[in-house]
Specification:
It is a single chain. The protein is of the alpha+beta class and about 200 residues long. Helix content is about 20%, strand content about 35%. The strands form 3 sheets. A 5-stranded antiparallel β-sheet has the order 3-9-12-11-10. The radius of gyration is 18 Å and the shape is globular.
Length: about 200
């Protein structure tokens, strides 16, 4: 990923051994107070496949391990894509957006295989399958004050959410539609469209 073009207004410093890991956005020790003394941001590269169309749920239902009829907006579901013999081809987390499109989050190395597997059967259904990996960013945020920060820019009440590891919510953060996954104590993964990621980073900084 070209971090310098994604955040042109920041002095990006990446890890020498793994350029996908951002070590600094140009902040100095004097900037840390403005970060609520807690935020450490990095970005986890993930692959995303969008499925849209009236037959999408029915199309997936016959190929995956989870019940897609139970998928709700803002409540991701984990599952696996299976071969006709029941062998796992790849794992995913499924998200449903406000337009009822389904977004499958998976490891970027299997996106091409996943789409190829889907397209073997998609001709029989009214569903479109698109690699949208370049349209989304997953941001990992850690810190004891992370939920205090979120509370200043979201209508969602995080009081119960922050005490429930594994909780997921789709909400508005600084006027941007995001999905927040509470992965560990004081740690979240935040899914946002790439086009809004710089604005969101600026707000959090």
């Amino acid at each position: 990923m070209d971090w310098h073009s994604l955040f042109p207004s920041h002095n990006i410093i990446t890890n020498a051994e793994n350029p996908s890991i951002v070590e600094s956005f140009g902040e100095s020790p004097s900037d840390y107070k403005s970060l609520f003394k807690q935020n450490i941001l990095s970005t986890d590269l993930r692959g995303y496949i969008q499925l849209s169309g009236p037959d999408t749920e029915k199309f997936l239902q016959g190929q995956v391990s989870c019940d897609m009829s139970l998928l709700e907006k803002g409540k991701p579901m984990n599952g696996a894509h299976l071969t006709p013999k029941g062998r796992i081809t790849f794992l995913f987390s499924a998200h449903k957006d406000q337009d009822d499109n389904i977004l499958l989050e998976t490891h970027p190395s299997v996106v091409e295989l996943a789409i190829s597997s889907f397209k073997k059967y998609s001709v029989f259904f009214k569903t479109d399958i698109t690699d949208v990996s370049d349209q989304f960013v997953m941001i990992n945020i850690k810190g004891s004050k992370v939920f205090d920060l979120f509370a200043t820019g979201s209508p969602f009440n995080f009081n119960e959410f922050k005490n429930k590891k594994g909780s997921v919510v789709q909400t508005i953060l600084s006027h941007i539609d995001v999905i927040i996954h509470h992965t560990e104590k004081n740690e979240v993964n935040l899914l946002v469209r790439r086009s809004f990621s710089e604005h969101l980073h600026s707000w959090m900084s």
